[in-house]
Structures are given as structure tokens and as C-alpha cells.
């Protein structure tokens, strides 16, 4: 008979439970990890430790819920090859920009050239959707649209698209304290809970475009200096349906969790401005579907489907390493249905000091193998 959940529980892992002082925000968001905001990532230092413990040197890793690409970026830094899948087109764009090997001189030249043309008033601002009309002040809208019309002229168009999305996020008509999921545009001055004073919504985007273009160039160069490997694949689609390019030595991932985050909706401005494919109906555990019994059942079915597909792409000695805050206790059954046996389970203490979602909680790391 196999061991039970409780027998397997290895307790709190102090080596994976960093305090803010041991691991400050600038380390957690080093180089490309901060190319664009993304709600729901795990931290690169955790991934690095999990690779050390569970992935052979020079091995190959799969992340079926790759999100903003933390696993893939860390794999490149740790000398591993990797593949990542995500259902959200913007996440795939972001991952490609983070992980591609950019030609440094061409990149620098193109970013500066695009910015110079923008500063000279080039570009066309005529074409926009109802969303763009509603969510940006006239000057911000004109600047973002002109920048967008220049992007296609460059080899590094995707890098410029990420800059544009980041600037658009900052330039939306929102309050400073509700940047993640603003419900309606904010037109006039308002009392700001973040800054404890009256603030007014942003009216222009040019300063963001300038600042983020330069910041992006710096971050991509910093990452180019520390990456050790080249081999990385980014696949857009449903991880339970795509042909996964195995074999892999390990699956290292943090799955979505029911009712918490809408991964498409958090980057709505990018979908609207860049015309990206919206596959939100295939998103597992989307917050908008709630947490009623049927939604939870659909969530579990979706995760089992993805784990099944990953098992088929795993080497016989391969392992699943799953980071999840399983507050509803869904994973024992999910693992069993996916034919996985839990080998190890440890907890880490997460103490987030910054942002509106600050607070402490515990997160599980589940290590399992196909039986
Ligand atoms: C918790 S996040 C992963 C974050 C990632 N670890 C990081 O650090 O950026 C879960 C991701 O699963 C993706 N996702 C949801 N349903 C999916 C599906 N059917 N196939 C592939 N990805 C999916 C979401 O778009 C989201 O980006």
C-alpha cells in the first residue's frame, strides 16, 4: 500500500521560505522578470531550488502553465532546456520576448530608432476600438496608437509590443490603487488610498513609452549576460490538447487555482491594442467562473487532462513538481485521477510585504511520479 498524504508530509521547508530581507523585491524581479506586470507568478529563486533538487543537470523541463515564463527564464539561467505552454496569447508574447536571444546591437538600434521617430511625431493614431476610446485620455490614446503604428517596421517588433502594453497599462484611466482589475474608467480626481491624497488619472503616455523602452533594453541585456543555454520553446494553446514536444525530465509548474485570477482579463488592454487571440473560454479555473461545485469539478477535470498529457511526454524516471496553495484540498484526488503517486510534499511560508495582495500564507510543493 502506498504512503498516505499525512505520512508523506515533510513539514515546513525553511530553505524555501525567504524573508523580505533575505530576498528583497529587486532580487525577485531581477532582469527580465520585471519586463511587464503579471499577477500570479512564482519567484525565480524558488524555481532555481526546485531545479537543483528535482531536475538532472542539463535536463529538459516542461511548464504546462508557463504564465509569464519564470520557469523558462530560470531554466536558461540554470543551464537547462525547456518548453512552456500557456493558453493566454499575451503571456506567450511576453515569454518569447524574455527568452529569445536578441542580437544586442540591432535591438538597441531598433528601440532607439522607434523612440526617436515617435518623439518626432511620426505614426498614425486613426484606428482604435471602443475599449481604447473609453480607457485612455485623448493625449495618451494618440501617443499609444502612434507608437503602435511604428512597431511593425522592426525585426524586434515583439519587444516593442511588450513596451507598448506596459505603457498602456500604466496610462489607463484607472485609480493608482486598482491597476490589476479596474472595473470602470476613472475620469476625474479621486481620493487615492495608496498615496493618501487626491490624485488625478494619467493623461499622457509618452513618459511611460520612453522609460519602458530604455528599461526593457537594460533588462534584456542584463539577462543576456547570465543565460547559459539557448534551447527553449513557447507554445500557445491548451496544454491538455497540444502535442507536447517531449521527452522531458521533469514538469515544474504552478497551476491556476479556481476563482482567483482571470489571466486573460488582467492584460485586457494588450489584447485590445495588439489584436491578440482571446482564448479565455479555455482558461482553467478562471475567476469569472466562480467557485460553485460545477466550476470546481470543471477545474479538476481540466487539471487532470493537462497532467495526463504531461505524463505522456515525461521520461520514465521523470517527476512532477507542482507548487500550489491548495486551500480547498483538491490535489490528492487530482493526482490520483491523473495516475500520479505523491512522493514528497513540503510547505513554504510566503510573506508578501508589498502590493495590495500583501499578507502571509503557506504554499505546498508536491513532488509526484506516474505509477
Ligand atoms: C499560476 S499561473 C502560472 C504562473 C507562472 N508560474 C509564472 O511564474 O509566471 C497559471 C497559468 O496557467 C494558464 N492556463 C490556464 N488554463 C490553461 C490551459 N488550459 N492551458 C495552458 N495554460 C493555461 C494561465 O493563463 C496562467 O498564465
Task: Compute the CA-based radius of gyration.
Answer: 21 Å
Relative strand content: 15-25%
Q: Whole-number average pLDDT? A: 93
Strand order of the largest sheet: 1-9-10-8-7-2-3-6
Contiguous helical run count: 13
Shape field = globular
Percentage of residues assigned to helices: 25-40%
> Biggest sheet: strands, sense, closure?
8 strands, mixed
Category by helix and strand content: alpha/beta
The stretches of 5 or more residues where confidence is low (pLDDT under 50) are none
In words, what does this structure look like?
The model has no long low-confidence stretch (mean pLDDT 93). By secondary structure, this protein is of the alpha/beta class. The strands form 2 sheets. It has an 8-stranded mixed beta sheet, with helices on both faces. Strands 4-5 form a two-stranded antiparallel sheet. Helix 6 packs across helix 8, helix 9 packs across helix 10 and helix 12 crosses helix 13. It is built from 13 helices and 10 strands. 39% of the residues lie in helices and 18% in strands.
Give a summary of the structure in a few sentences.
Helices cover about 40% and strands about 20% of the residues. The chain is built from 13 helices and 10 strands.
Please describe the topology of this protein.
Layout: H1 5-8, E1 9-12, H2 25-28, H3 44-54, E2 60-63, H4 70-78, E3 81-86, H5 89-99, H6 104-119, H7 130-135, H8 138-151, H9 157-171, E4 190-192, E5 197-199, H10 206-226, E6 232-236, E7 248-253, H11 268-274, H12 293-312, E8 314-324, H13 331-337, E9 340-352, E10 359-370
Parallel strand pairs: 1-9, 2-3, 2-7, 3-6, 7-8
Antiparallel strand pairs: 4-5, 8-10, 9-10
Helix pairs in contact: 3-4, 6-8, 6-10, 8-9, 9-10, 9-11, 12-13
The structure holds S-adenosylmethionine.
The site of S-adenosylmethionine has 23 residues, from strand 3.
